[in-house]
Every structure is written in C-alpha cells, then in structure tokens.
Amino acid sequence: MSLAGSDPDTALLRLARRAAHMAGDLLLRGAAEGRPTARTKSSPADLVTVHDHRSEECVVRLLTAHRPDDGILGEEGGERPGNSGVRWVIDPLDGTANFVSGYPAFAVSLAAERAGVARVGVVYDPCRRETFTAIRGQGAACDGRPLTASRVDRLDQALVSTGFSADAEIRARQARCAARVLRRVRDLRSSGSAALDLCWVAAGRLDGYYEADLRPWDHAAGALIAQEAGAWVGAAPGAQPGGALTLACAPALADGLRALVGAE
User: Fold this and answer.
1) Are 195 and 105 in contact (CB under 8 A)?
2) Of 35, 67, 120, 190, which cross-links 12 as Cys (Cβ 3.0–4.6 Å)?
3) 27-55 pLDDT, tens digit each
4) What is the sign of the dihedral through the CA atoms of 180, 182, 184 and 189?
5) Considering the entire predicted model, what is its pTM?
6) Is residue 218 within 8 Å of 117, Cβ to Cβ?
C-alpha cells in the first residue's frame, strides 16, 4: 500500500489506518493468549497491561518510520515534540478494563492534529473488524461507507451512552448524573470505550453520548468522526470538549442533553 498522496490529510489517514490495523491485530493476538495481567495506575479502576504498551509501540514505530518529524502524544508513552506541524494523539487500547475481562468492546484510536486541531481520525474496532475514519471537512465513514448521525429529536426517544471515571469521587457524581439522565431518556448504556461510543454516535447506533474526565487521546479521533457524520459535538455550558464534560449527540438533542448533564 502506498502511503503517499496528493492530499496531505489523505496521506495521514492512510498511515493512521495502517497503524491502527496493525495495533488492533496485535491486541487480538494478545487477547487470544488468555486473560492478561493488569496493573493499576491512578486508582484500582485505572488499568494498564503489557498489551497497551505493545500496541502503542507498534503505532509509534510505524508513524516515526514514515514521519520522523511529527510530534506524538500517547496515553502510555507521554509526549514527544516534533517540528513538522503535525501531532499524533494515540490511545493504543481504549477500553483496557474490557480487554482484561474479555469483554469485546475496545479499540485503537489515532488522530492527527495540525495547530491543535484534529484533521484526521481513525478508530479501529478489532473485535468487529470495523474501521471508522474521518478527514475534517470531508465527512466520516465506516469501512468506506458514509456515516450519518441520528436525527432523533426527543430525549425520551434517545438511546444515550456514558462512561465512568477511574476516580471514585468523580464516579459518584457521574452515577448521580446517570440516574437523572435515565429518567429522561429511552435508555442508557455504557460500553467502557469513549472512542467506540463517539463512533457509534456517528453511525446512528447511539443518539447521544456524554462523559466527564476524558483525556485528549480518549476523544480526539472519535469526536472528529462524530462531528463529520453530522452529530453535534461540544461540551456542557461553560466547559470545553475534553475537559469537564464532552458530549456528542443528534443535533436536535443538543440543548436538552447539555442542560440535563451539565447540571451536576
């Protein structure tokens, strides 16, 4: 496969997709070896395995082989500056707790930024063999098929997903918020993977998604994919996406869902 192209963003997308597939297939091989040993990071609920590190090493190795001057921000490897104007934001295993338990909802997520703005996003779901992609201004797709976000226009008809922090105090607040949301929507889900939830909003499988306490690698690719599919993507009133609260939903739900989840 040629990784060159006349459109710089298309070339970045090709490279990101190849890296995500390589890392995802590595994760599947790791999962086939049996339940992995996990260690904790910031809390007992914040897990990491050797497969997180192997996946990130795989991605970084390919990216640096083709684009050695790019910057990199990885969940496990930290930040490395670059001088090309491009920075890669990498989550090598989004949904580690799922992976450890053999629950088939995890992904590899890569975004390429220019001047701090995501230009390209790729999220690969190795369990379903689905690849979600987007280039800013050019729409979003799953395995080449264009994506269109939900057009549900009533909260009581909406299937909404959320996630929970590894921090116990934040989880308690999130549980109170989830109870409030559940009373107002059709049903509530939690996949354990922010990247997948954002892509499922893009695909219309979810009508909305919200989560607090995300990091840049959690949402960089998925938020672009959701936005390019026509979803409303932003934050609760007064917050920035990726900070206090990130939200993606059918456009007609944005005001109501923002008000509902921003109250906590």
Assistant:
1) no
2) 120
3) 999 888 877 666 655 555 555 688 888 89
4) positive
5) 0.92
6) no
